[in-house]
Design a protein that fits this description.
The chain is α+β, with helices and mostly antiparallel strands. It is built from three helices and six strands; from the N terminus they run ββαββββαα. The protein is globular and about 50 Å long.
């Protein structure tokens, strides 16, 4: 949602929001410890995305790059994207068998609003990596996948 100069609230259409997110990511604006972009540049509905998170220092995730898949459903941004790790990872908000992120356990997804985006979800995952309950968890061998 955006406010006009006259104070009216305008709901930004799904594809406009996603195009804005894609442009920001492609231009390298924002957090350089995360990355995201379309799986297929010909995806006119901007549905399926690749994501990446650089593991934070002083944690078990340090010096690793984690690959994710992000699916923006038809109701996005009214609902959060669905996120699944490709790289094996051990975290309390990630299903250990499938790699799917549990939205109820991730603050950005649990407190979702339509002004948030893919970047905020990836940042929230990275912040969970440094949390007390995750930072010292033993991790699978680097390079393994779900």
């Amino acid at each position: 949602m955006k406010k006009t100069p006259s104070g009216e609230t305008v709901i930004v259409p799904r594809n406009f929001k996603l195009l804005e997110e894609l442009e920001k990511s492609e231009k390298g604006h924002g957090d350089m410890c995360i990355s995201f972009g379309l799986v297929d540049s010909g995806d006119t509905f901007l549905t399926d995305w690749n994501g990446g998170i650089l593991g934070p220092p002083a944690t078990q995730f340090a010096d690793r790059f984690y690959e994710l898949r992000i699916h923006c459903p038809e109701k996005y941004p009214a609902v959060p994207p669905q996120v699944q790790f490709v790289s094996k990872i051990n975290m309390n908000c990630v299903d250990s068998k499938s790699g799917k992120v549990n939205g109820n356990k991730l603050p950005a997804m649990r407190n979702w609003n339509r002004n948030m985006g893919i970047e905020q979800v990836l940042q929230s995952i990275r912040m969970e990596m440094v949390s007390d309950q995750n930072r010292r968890l033993r991790q699978p061998q680097d390079g393994t996948t779900f």
